[in-house]
Amino acid sequence: SAIYELSCEAYKHLGKTSNYYWIDPDGSGALGPLKVYCNMTEDKVWTTVYHDLQMQTSVGGSSVEKLSVLQLNYSATMDQISAITSSAEYCEQFISYSCKMSRLLNTPEGNPYSWWVGKANEKHYYWGGSGPGIQKCACGIERNCTDPKYYCNCDADYKQWRKDSGMLSYKEHLPVSQVVVGDLDRPGSEAKVSVGPVRCQGDRNYWNAASFVTSSSHLHFSTFQGETSADISFYFKTSASDGVFLENLGNTDFIKLELKSAREVSFSFDVGNGPVEIVVRSPNPLNDDQWHRVNAERNVKQASLQVDQLPLEVRKAPTEGHTRLELYSQLYVGAVGGQRGFLGCIRSLRMNGVTLDLEERAKVTPGVKPGCSGHCTSYGMYCANGGKCVEKYNGYSCDCSKTAYDGPFCIKDVGAFFEEGMWLRYNFHSPGTSMKDLVSRTLLSSADPEITAPDLSLNKEELSFSFSTTKSPCVLLYVSSYTPDFMAVLVNPNGNLQIRYNLGGTKEPYNIDIDHRNMANGQPHTVNVTRNGRDIVLQLDHYPPTSYSLPATSDIQFNSPKALFLGKVIEIGKIDEDIYKYNTPGFTGCLSRVQFNQIAPLKAALRPTNASSHVHIQGELVESNCGASPLTIPPMSAATDPWHLDSASADFPYNGQAIGDGVNRNSAIIGGVIAVVIFTILCTLVFLIRYMFRHKGTYHTNEAKGAESAESADAAIMNNDPNFTETIDESKKEWLI
C-alpha cells in the first residue's frame, strides 16, 4: 500500500513543488487518502479542495418554486475536509450572490431568504466578508452598500444586477455544502451563485513539538484508547543514545515505544499473551540530531514498526488468545517510573489519527519546552543555490537575499527581457561613500572621480547566469574598472560565445572562444565562469567544464572594479574596439539569475533590496523567465519517484489515461497539437504584454476608486471590480479541471 504524507506541509519539506498530491490527514485511520492541490509558493503552504458547482450558476428566471437548493460535491468526504480545516491555521472559501430583484438576507429586520449550509449540516445566515452571528453582507460591515438602509446590496431589490460577495473564513463552519436560494418567485427575479474551493493555510499539527530537557521530564495525556487497533506516528530528533518515547500501562497490558540504542527503535506491547517486541535496526546512528520518523501500528491480525524509509518490521498476532489492549494509566510521553526518559525533540505525535497538543502541555510542564529548534540540520539542504536556512519557532525558511534566485527554496530564476537598446548598470560602490567610510570602503564616491582609484582588486571571480537571444553580435555582460582592466562575455557575429579578460601585462586582451556552438539560437544557455588567479574554468550548459590559463605575462589582479553592465556598455574613457562595435544596436533577449561574486544585479533591479540603490536602468525592464536555465538533471523517473502520482488512478480533478508501452498514437499526436496551440497562445500573450510595456517606458495604473477607504489593496479591488474574484476563480477552475 502506498504511504501518503499527512499534509501538504509534509510534502513541502520533502522539497516538493506545487502540484496535486494525495494526503492522508489521519494516517492509517478510517478517513483514507484524498487528493488536494498544494500551493508551495508562499512561506505557508495552501491546501485546496475543489467541488463541482460551476461558477455563476443561474437560479430562478423560469422556475416558480419557492426555494432553489444548490448542492456542492467535493473531491473529498466532509470528514476528510474537517481533518484539514481543524489542523490548519486559517481557511477561507469565496462565496458570491449576483441578483436581479432577488433579496438575499432580507436585512435589516426580516428572516433571511437565502442561507448556506456548512459543516455538520448547520445553516448559516451570514455572507462572505462577514462573520458568524452577524446577519450582514460584506457591504454591511464596511458600510458601503448600494442603499445604506440595507446590509446587503441585493436586499435593496433593484431591477439591475447587483452583487454581494466575499470570503467565509470562520473555519469551524467550512466547507459550504449547500446554498439555498429563496426570493425567486416573482416575475423578473433572477440570481447567480458562485462558490470557490476551500483553501486552508498552515498546518498546526506538523510542527507541534516539545523539547525534553531532562531525562526525567515527561508530559501526560488521557489514557490511550487503542483496544483493537493502535496507530502511532511521530518525528524525533536527539543526540542521546537511548530513552523512552512514550508508554501507557494497564494491569498487565502495556504499550511502549523507545529508543533502545543509537541504532535501535523498539515497539513493545502486551495484550495478555505475554510481551511482544518489534525492533528496527538502522544502519546509521539515529542520534545524529536529524529528524527521524517512527510509525507503529497494531491490530488484531498483526503489528508493525517502521523508521524513516527503512524496511517495515512486521509480527503476526497469534491465531488464538487475547486481542484487546486494556490500559488504565495515563499516557506518558517521555520518562516515567524511574526509566531513562527521552532527551531531545518529539513533534507531530499522532495517536489513532489525532495529533496530541505537545506544545500546549509543554507550556505548563517543568523540564519540557514547547517547540523545537534546529530544523535546519534536517531541512537546510532544501535551500538551494546558496540560500541560507533560517531557523523559525515552527519550522524554517530559506533566505535567498544573497542569491540570484527567489521562491521558498531559492530555486526560481529571477530574470528579465531586454529590448533592443536597453541596458542595466550595477555600481559596485554605493553613491556617496568616501574613503573615510571604512565600513564600506570597497569603492570611491562617484562625486570626485579625480582621486586615485580605490584600493580594491580581485584575484578571483565567480560569474554565473543564463541567457537566450536570436541576435548577434552583442554584449551580454561587461565588468568595468577605474583602470584599463575589464572582463566581458560576448556573442560574436557568428553567434559564438567569447569570454574576454584584460587584466594588463598583455598587448591584446585574452580571449576564450567557443567556436563550435551557436549560442544565438533562441534557446536558454547557462554560463559559469570561475577565475582563481591565472586559472579559469568555464562551464557551458551541461557540457563538462573546461579549463584555461591566462598567459604568463598577464597580471592576475582585476584592479579597482567599478561597475557591471548588462546588455550594453555605457562607460566613460577608452573602450575595446570589438565591444564598441557589438554595442550597437545592443542585446535583445533574456538574461536570468545573473550573479557576480556576491552580487545579483538583475534581482537587485527587480526586487527592492538594500542593493537597489546601486542599479541604474535605461529602458523598461520587464520581468520574465524566458532566459531561465534549462533543466540539466533529468527528472526522476516515475518508477523511482515515490511521490509520483499515477494519473490513471487520480480520479479528481482530471482523469488522464497514462500512456503505457502500447502508446496510443492518436492521443499522442492530438496532445502534440494541443501543446503547440497552447505554446502559440502563450507566445502571443508574451508579445502582447511586451507591446503594452513598450510605450515610452511608462504605464498607467487604474487606481481602484475605493482604494483610500479600503483596508487593503485586495479589498479595494474586490470592492470596485464586480467581476474581479469571479474571473480569477473561473479561469483557475477551467485550467484545473
Automatic annotation (TrEMBL):
Keywords: Cell adhesion, Disulfide bond, EGF-like domain, Glycoprotein, Membrane, Repeat, Signal, Transmembrane, Transmembrane helix. SUPFAM superfamilies: Concanavalin A-like lectins/glucanases, Fibrinogen C-terminal domain-like. Pfam families: Laminin_G_2 (PF02210). It is a single-pass type I membrane protein. CDD domains: EGF_CA, LamG. Residues 1-51 form the Fibrinogen C-terminal domain. Residues 208-372, 440-626 form the Laminin G domain. Residues 373-411 form the EGF-like domain. SMART domains: 4.1m, LamG. Disulfide bonds join 345-372. Belongs to the neurexin family. This is CNTP2 protein.
